[in-house]
Amino acid sequence: MPWVAIIDDDEEVRSSLGALIDSFGYRASLFDHADDFLAGGNASRFACIISDIHMPGTSGIQLAVDLSQRPSQPPLILITAYVSPMVERQAKEAGVLDVMTKPLDQGALENLLRRIL
């Protein structure tokens, strides 16, 4: 069963997204900041990463840039309540698979995960 990393500083979003990922038949590991995730040093053990863009410390965009400089990293999906053309451009340049807006379309997320996993 594939593992999906969930990174979001909002505990309610993080835990509900984790439960949603579990309901899709995957396993979720929850992180409250990108810095905590990166400190673990094991990003490659995940089949996919879902991260908020706007968080204290390392942002989702910076996380994408950091991961893009490492060999064989998992696909990254960024989520945000505030999307802009500039953010979408930065995400694409950093190799992000998709940018989804909150509240998430559960069906679209499930379809995306099924396609990549």
Care to describe what's here?
The chain has about 120 residues and is of the alpha/beta class. It has one domain (about 5-115): Response regulator (Rossmann fold). The protein is about 40% helix and about 20% strand. It is built from five helices and five strands. It has helices at about 10-25, 35-40, 60-70, 85-95, 105-115; strands at about 5, 25-30, 50, 75-80, 100. The protein has a five-stranded parallel β-sheet, with helices on both faces. Strand 3, helix 3 and strand 4 form a beta-alpha-beta unit.
Topology of helices and strands:
Elements: E1 3-7, H1 11-23, E2 27-31, H2 34-40, E3 48-52, H3 60-68, E4 76-80, H4 85-93, E5 98-101, H5 106-116
Summary of the model, kept short:
With 117 residues, the chain is α/β, with parallel strands linked by helices. It has one domain: Response regulator (Rossmann fold, 3-Layer(aba) Sandwich). The protein is 42% helix and 21% strand.
Q: How many alpha or pi helices?
A: 5
CATH class descriptor name: Alpha Beta
Q: How far apart lie the N and C ends?
A: 10 Å
Q: Domain count, please report it.
A: 1
The share of residues in extended strands comes to 15-25%
Largest sheet: 5 strands, parallel
Order of SSEs, N→C? EHEHEHEHEH
* Helical percentage: 40-55%
Q: Count of DSSP E strands?
A: 5
What are the defining features of this structure?
5-stranded parallel sheet, 117 residues, Rossmann fold, alpha/beta, 5 strands, single chain
